[in-house]
Amino acid sequence: MKKMILMMIMILAPTILFAQRPGMRGQKMHQRREQIEMLRIWKMTQELDLTEEQAGRFFPRLRADDKNIDELEKERQSIFHELHKEAMKGGMSGKKLDEKIERISEIEIKILRNRANFIRNMDDLLSTDQRAKLMVFRHRFRDRMENMMREARKNRQMMNNGIRR
Question: Per-residue confidence of the chain (165 residues) as pLDDT tens digits?
């Protein structure tokens, strides 16, 4: 099972990576996202010890959940962008700020509920242990990716400043 999924990832990786050709910088970001996604799927399959049948049912549901969360995060990011523009102009009213805070908070609550409901709703497919592992995996994977990005940013800044490790 694991070998089959790994082989599918290796076969599909070049197709996925080169299917879209945005600008050079965009292409690199797109490739990194695809590589991270392949790594996430591979590690998740290992971590949860999914059977072939489970994987066939689990990953489409995961993609749908990811899409819902992405849409919520884009909405939240849009509000932060509006907030930034208005704050830079100056003169924002307290009422307007409170409205933005409330909208952002509502979206963050939706994201948390969505993540919790996804794991709860996997009870028809995953064992209790697998659902617990899924919850831990998602948290750890997100933390690791954030730490890696932070470290990459730090290294880039050091390189730009002429400081080498």
Answer: 555 554 445 444 444 444 444 555 677 878 888 888 999 999 999 999 999 999 999 999 999 999 999 999 999 999 999 999 998 998 889 999 999 999 999 999 999 999 999 999 999 999 999 999 999 999 999 888 888 888 888 888 888 887 654
Provide the domain count of the chain.
Answer: 1
- Would you say residue 5 lies in a domain? yes
**Full residue range of the structural domain in which residue 16 is found:** 1-48
Query: Would residue 39 count as lying in a domain?
Result: yes
3-state helix, strand, coil in the chain (%, to 5): 90, 0, 10
Asked whether 42 and 1 are in contact (CB, 8 A), the reply is no
For the full predicted model, state whether its pTM sits above 0.85: no
Would you state the structure tokens that stand for residue 117, as one six-digit string? 């409901």
Phi, psi of 150 (to 5 degrees): -60, -45
CA distances from 135 to 5, 36, 126, 139, 159 (A): 21, 18, 12, 6, 36
Q: What is the spatial distance between Cα 23 and Cα 88, in angstroms, rounded to a whole number?
A: 30
On whether residue 3 sits in a domain, the answer given is yes
